[in-house]
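Human:
Take a look at this sequence-structure pair and walk me through the tokens.
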Amino acid sequence: MKFGKYLEDRKAHLPVEYASNCLDYNGLKLFLKETVYASSIKINPTQQQQLPFSQLVSQRLGQLQQCEVQFIDQLDIQVKKVCDFFQQESARLVSETATDQYTPTDLLQKILTLERFVFLNYTGITKILKKNDRHSGLALSEPYLHCIAQLPLVKAEDLTQLKQVAMNKLQQLHTAVEQHSSLSFSPNMLRSRSQYKFTANAALPPTYVGPNQKVLVSLSGPHGTDIVGAVLECLARHPCAIEDFMLSRLYHNVTFGVLITLQSDNVTVFRDLAEAAQQWDATLTFDVPDSQATEPSIRHRETKEKKKSDSAIAAITEEQIYLPASLEEAPYSGRIKYAASILNQNGLEATFLSEWTQLLLKHRISVEKLSRLDKGHSLSCADLRLSVPTTVDMDILRKELIELSASFGSDVALQPDDVFRKNKRLVVFDMDSTLIQQEVIDEIARYAGVVDKVAAITEAAMNGEIDFKESLRRRVALLNGTSVSVIEDVKKILTFTEGARFLCRALKKLGFKLAVISGGFMPLALYVKAELGLDYAFANQLKVSSDGLTLTGETTGPIVDGIRKAELLEVIAQSEGVTLNQVIAVGDGANDLWMLNKAGLGIAFNAKPRVQEQARARINQKSLKYVLSLLGYSEQDMEQLGDGRLQ
């Protein structure tokens, strides 16, 4: 909702004389549009070709000077109108209170109405000044607000005292009610000068009841902790509740934002904040949530109006405005939170980041938080929290992400940003081309002299062209008669994938249970288990001759194919007492897809194309350490887990 509409809506719920004395925001806005906008010093580049730049600036400044003087004159007239009415109403309330013309509750209602008038108009003044600043290219907001800081509208000293009187009287009545609880009470407060009745369990408002208006305040500048301290010191001097705050830093420059609920009866807090901003060379902004976030509150208020309730609480409390639970969240309802990890060990290119952002905009996805995870000279890894509309087709989005990743060699892993992302407990790895760089059956075949034949079958199986069980049967058959000693020879040449040892050490320090479930062979899986400190190892068993010297070209026991891998993953999870949402699976082949899809987070690591298309997350970098990045761990975190080393 635009502020002009918001203002008109709020004015409609004020008494007629109040509404007629409000700031003419729309009139001032129209004046800006007709005069200042056309004379802005924000020059269109095409206009620079018609005149020399210096001459164009001179021309514009001359026009703008006249327009700005006229604008300020009109704003002064409006501010005077608002201030005069405020003083008149304040004096009338003080005078009539002295003659005891109001019950404490009626008086408090009138004070609250005047408070809302003050805040609504002060907000209007601030917003029209910001609009002028934005379109004129000048910065008149802060000096103008400093000029009006001492006006009665801002200080409201008489109203402060009057409100305290009303609250004291209400407290006295409440005490009297408690002392005479045997009396009969009507369900509603009677508005009589001589008689006050409350329900027995009526709850009085706190000592300082204000408009309960939520306001977003932010201060930006080069003095980090000083700015935080200045804002909090100002808020401590005024009755207000801090609902939330956040800090963002860009080198020495910080922005400190605070969401407050006003409980005071004037706007002097903003005068003090403006003075603090000036002291610390900072920029102050504040805003009243008046966009779609206020719509539920408007409906709530209209419901209250229909009920015509005049109970104590309904009479003196303002409607609540819907806002997200945190300032870091995008203020939208009906959305799902996702975590996105973007990484490229060689650095994230500006072109990739631009295309990535355009893809988010295309689907109306909001970035709520962005954190850098690496600490190198160039940005290579970042973690984002996204607010995704429920209308987004996630299958289409994932396909677009795969295309984007392939175009730039940069990975994008998308996963629900829920409690399970931070509470994984079990990691299950494939072995061949995942924890180790080789395919063990190819290495055995190399010693047997049939490597080309076996490798061709392996490649077809990994691409999903041949059923895994059939491919395994064919390959193992080619090993018939091979010496069993070849297993020990293969162990000596196994090369662990970059980051494998580091990742497993780090995960063990974090309390994870680790397993390898391989379509390879058990002796080598047990070797990998021992080398990496894993907790479980499952693989196929090679059958040997009766004398134990040669391979027979057969396997014994259940075949560990894709389905079996998923079953074993589930068995391990159950034995460890963890849910599938707490399981990570990492693999590269088509036979890994079952376990990748069974786990809460399935990662295709340098996988075949078909696997990348079907897996929910992908890592196409050299190191397995990036599994930690998908969990949100930074490079500093990894160094702590690796005792200063990342290998």
About this structure: Residues 3-179+205-316 form one domain. The two ends are 54 Å apart (CA to CA).
